[in-house]
Amino acid sequence: MELRHFRYFIAVAQDLHFTRAAARLGISTPTLTRQIQEMEATLGIRLFERNQRSVALTPAGEVLLVEAQAVVAQFEAAQLRAQREARGETGKIHVGYVASAAYSGVLQRQVAAFRKACPDVGLAEIHPAHLKAETLILPEQVSGTLSTAEQGGFVPRLGPQPGGLVAVLALVSLGEGVAIVPNAVAGHISLPSLVYREIAGLAVTSYLSLMSRQYEKAATIRRYIELVSRPAPG
């Protein structure tokens, strides 16, 4: 037997009328009758009691109806899950980000838009302990500082480069020097003796880039990349 036999059987069991069931299925009545007879012959049982005036399920047919409906529903659910996975609408992804993406609100807007478009995709939070076995790549971002110094017409005297933004601000609060940081940071990180001041002159643009594997195979991740790469509204 094939899945279509179950579909045909369910239609007749619901309508208890071969002609109406055949019309709903889009096949002829003789074809439907033949398919039901094939099922009965394969199973070695009668599924329907029928005469010229009525059609009724046998006790065996009633049992099979429950099982057949479950099989068809499971198959259709499996189809839907596979199709949604292929479209990148289910699953789980991990998103790493730099602090400035959160301070500026870019991350929150992107995540909110993605959750609205794909509510069944989980965005997993990574606890620092999860990175214990990983090799960490820590870029030093000094381009903004150098650009500001160039505008001021001087060569900066560079001090320690601790890497993380919070570590940089901690050194400033300890009196080790000054730091050029994104405007979005002001008001988000407060430390003793730390004061933020705007610098006059041309604005220094800081770009946020999305990085992923070149040949990404996961449909869910490709969906996320496609969504957050769209131009922001307005």
Question: What does this protein structure show overall?
Answer:
The protein has 234 residues and is mainly α. It folds into three domains: 3-68, Arc Repressor Mutant, subunit A, CATH 1.10.10.10; 92-123, no CATH class; 125-233, D-Maltodextrin-Binding Protein, domain 2 (3-Layer(aba) Sandwich), CATH 3.40.190. It contains nine helices and four strands, in the order αααββαβααβααα. The strands form two sheets. It has a two-stranded antiparallel ribbon. A two-stranded parallel ribbon has the order 3-4. The two termini are 57 Å apart. Keywords: DNA-binding, Transcription, Transcription regulation. Belongs to the LysR transcriptional regulatory family. Residues 1-58 form the HTH lysR-type domain. This is LysR family transcriptional regulator.
Q: Tally the helices: what do you get?
A: 9
- CATH topology call of the largest domain: D-Maltodextrin-Binding Protein, domain 2
The number of distinct structural domains comes to 3
Average pLDDT rating: 80
Q: Major sheet: size, sense and barrel closure?
A: 2 strands, antiparallel
Q: What overall form do the CA principal axes indicate?
A: rod-shaped
CATH class group of the largest domain: Alpha Beta
Radius of gyration equals 32 Å
Number of strands: 4
Helical content band:
40-55%
Runs in which pLDDT lies below 50 for 5 or more consecutive residues are none
CATH architecture of the largest domain: 3-Layer(aba) Sandwich
Order of strands in the sheet with most strands = 1-2
Q: Based on the structure, what is the oligomeric state of the protein chains? A: single chain
From the N-terminal CA to the C-terminal CA, the straight-line distance is 57 Å
